[in-house]
Amino acid sequence: xxxxxxxxxxxLLTLNMEQRFANRVAFRYYDADQDVVVEKHFGEYAQDIRRxxxxxxxxxxxxxxxxxxxxxxxxxxxxxxxxxVMLAGGVIVPMNQRKSWEELHRExxxxxxxxxxxxxxDYGCNExxxxxxxxxxxxxxxxxxxxxxxxxxxIQPEELMVLMFTSGTTGRSKGVMLCERNFFAVMPHHVRxxxxxxxLKNDPDLLVSHMTLLPMFHxxxxxxxxxxxxxxxxxxxxxxxxxxKDLKRMPSQDMAAVPVLVESIHHDLMTGKQDKLxxxxxxxxxxxxxxxxxxxxxxxxxxxxxxCQQIQQIAWEDVPMFPTFGRTEGYVYxxxxxxVVISPSGTLSFRTATLG
Length: 356
What we know:
The protein is α/β, with parallel strands linked by helices. Helix content is 35%, strand content 19%. It is built from 13 helices and 16 strands. Helix 1 packs across helix 10 and helix 12 packs across helix 13 (292-303). The longest helix has 18 residues, at 42-59.
C-alpha cells in the first residue's frame, strides 16, 4: 500500500523516518577528533528521537505545554532533542546564545522553562546562566540513557509547539508562537527547490543535501528539520570557519544563505572559481540581504550555463517568495527584482536564488 504524505510530526517519524527512508542519510557532520564524516540514517535518528521522548516524559512531569529551551550550537543532538520535546507534548524554545545575558535573562523570564539544554560551550555568560538557572541546565545527550518510547500523537495541530524570539536588532525581541499546522501548511513550497533539482537530474529519488550553517535558532535553519525529513533528504551540519572544507567533505546542493559566505560565493562566481562550490546549486533565505546587482549576478551566472552541465537554472518567474508559516500568500520576483504579489496580502517570506 502506498503511503500518503505525512501531515504531522507523528507521521513524519513513523511513516518517513521509520518506513520510507529508514536507510537514507538524515544527517552528516564532521568529527574533527576522528577526522571522519559521521552519517546518521533516518532509522537511527527515529530511534534516538523515541529515546528523547521517553527521557522528557520520564523527567518532566506533565510536560504537555511546558517549555524546554535549547542553548547550544547546531548538532545532531540539537535536532533529536527538538523532536523529542515536541513529540512528548512540550514546547521547544531555541535560544540565541549570541545575545547578551540581559537579553537572554529577559527572554527566559518570559518563557519560564522547565529545562534548559546546553552543550557546555562558553557563550560569554555561562556563570550568570549557572547562577540563575543551574538547577534547570541539562546536557544535550542525556536521552541516550533511555530506551525508545512507544509513540502516540500528543501534538494538537493548532497548539503552541515552538516558541522563537526575534533577533532584537530593531528593538526588544519578540516571541513568535508557532504550531504544528504552521510548519506543515507550507511544506510543499519549501521542498520545491530540491524537487526541481531532482527533476533536472532526471532522478526523483536523488538524495538532495542541505548545508546547514545558519544557527537552528534561526527559522530558516529550524524549518529544515521538518522539510528535509519530509522528502527523505540529508542535512549537512557545517561551520562558517571551515565552509569550503565542509562543502568538499559533504557535497551539498542547497544552503540557507549566510551573508558573509554569499559575498565569498559571489566573488568565486565572478572570478571563475565556481569549482570550489562543488554541487552547490541554490541559495535561499537571502532576498532581503543583498543589493539587486548581486542577486542578478547569481542569477545570470546560472542562466548562461549549458543545460547539461552540473549547475542548472530554475526559471526566474518560477522562483517563489514563499509565504510565511500557516498563510497562503506569496510573491514571485520579476527580472527587475520587484516583488509581484500572486495572492492577497503580503507577508514575511523566504526567497530562493540559483547559483552558477
